[in-house]
Amino acid sequence: MSDPNTNSSAPPEGAAQVETAAAATQGHAPEQSTRSLKARRWRLLGVATGVLVLLGAGYGAYWAKNLRYVESTDDAYVSGNVVQITPQVSGTVIGIGADNTQFVKAGQTLVRLDQEDAKVELDQAEAQLAKTVREVRNLFATSAQLQAAVDVRKADLTTAQQDLSRRERLGASGAVSAEELQHARDSLKASQAALVSAEQQLNANQARVDGTTVANHPDVRNAAAAVRSAYLAYSRTQLPAPVSGFVAQRSVQLGQRVSPGAPLMAVVPLDQVWVDANFKEPQLADIRVGQPVTLTADVYGKHVQYRGTVVGFGAGTGSAFALLPAQNATGNWIKVVQRVPVRIALDARQLQEHPLQIGLSMKANIDTHDRSGSTLPHLAATSVSYATDVFHTGEDVAEARVRDIIVSNETGRTAAAATARPHPGGGAARLAAARTPESTPVATMRAF
């Protein structure tokens, strides 16, 4: 039988223990979760801190090894030679051989001026040279004539002396009258005076030809110089391109009357460009001539890198050479960090692959590891940096024409009589006959 005092609703003893354990478990779970979350956070923070420390250490090592030796600027621009085409003689433009953006070769005719006036002057100079040669030949011939006259006067003087001597002997005996004796004495004096006059004429003429020949006589040389000058004026009616490059800034028009020195157009040789990088004052301390440079152009982007070399420094800051330089002594002075242009030479092969125009923006990075070079080296120029020979091709032609005129008028035959004869219109006509509308200055000069 069951005990009536026993509570039938009381849970069994095992069930109570289970409920107690569950309650204890539920109370400790939030604490463990919080500790686990904190531990993960600390681990992540440690990892992140370690990564940052490693990155900082790596960047510091890279900076210490490389970046601190690099000086950079984006204030850099492509520069080059702008060769102005200007006439050396005045004239009217009758032809233009190239326009803006076109490529021209050295020696190619760019502008042609009217040649008619120059032709007339050249023909006049050649005619004057021929006339002068003949006049000098006459001087030499006159000297021979005057020498013969002196010899005649000497013979007359000898005869007069002999006649006077005979009459003086006969006069002592009275065989010759005093009047006849006086006539003999007067004849002797006249012969002496005639001889002196002839000798003075010979000396005067001889002074004009002594120590010279027809070819190197001063009058002939002066006339020959006039021919060369006229030929130069004639040849300069065609303006050749001094260098190969692209035409820019064309301002000349057909029919325009131009004067010497007036700019007509420009030729820009883009294979000779360089970069002027303007570095700030604090950046210049470690930059030396000969240091390598890496450059990028905005037109191509960073995927095209140019290799360059520092070749020199500007003699002053940009403000010092400005059109209106700053006047800091006036009182309104504000300190501005100055920049000095650094000239950087580019690789010619890279310029062929990726050409650059003048004025394009560049970014320059100079590696200053090697600081053995000088900041401002005293290197004297040992050779000519730029030269052209398109303006000298006619000198030998003019000289050959001068020799031909001298020889033909001195001896009656030309210097090349067996192979050539003078053109009936003179030297200018020969040039005009040899010229073609498309001929270059070199070809036309050699066609003289």
Question: Mind sketching the topology for me?
Answer:
Elements: H1 13-65, E1 70-79, E2 83-85, E3 91-96, E4 103-104, E5 109-113, H2 116-173, H3 178-206, H4 218-235, E6 238-240, E7 245-248, E8 257-258, E9 265-268, E10 274-280, E11 292-297, E12 301-313, E13 339-346, H5 348-353, E14 361-367, H6 395-411, H7 426-434, H8 441-446
Antiparallel strand pairs: 1-10, 1-14, 2-9, 3-5, 3-8, 4-7, 5-6, 7-9, 10-13, 11-12, 11-14, 12-13
3D structure, described in words:
With 448 residues, the chain is of the alpha+beta class. It has helices spanning 13-65, 116-173, 178-206, 218-235, 348-353, 395-411, 426-434, 441-446, and strands spanning 70-79, 83-85, 91-96, 103-104, 109-113, 238-240, 245-248, 257-258, 265-268, 274-280, 292-297, 301-313, 339-346, 361-367. The chain has a 6-stranded antiparallel beta barrel. Helix 2 (116-173) packs parallel to helix 6 (395-411) and helix 2 runs antiparallel to helix 7. The chain is elongated, with a radius of gyration of 50 Å. The termini are far apart.
Q: Low-confidence parts, pLDDT < 50 over ≥5 residues? A: 1-10, 416-448
* Beta strands, count: 14
Helix count equals: 8
Reading the helices and strands in chain order gives: HEEEEEHHHEEEEEEEEHEHHH
Strand order of the largest sheet: 1-10-13-12-11-14
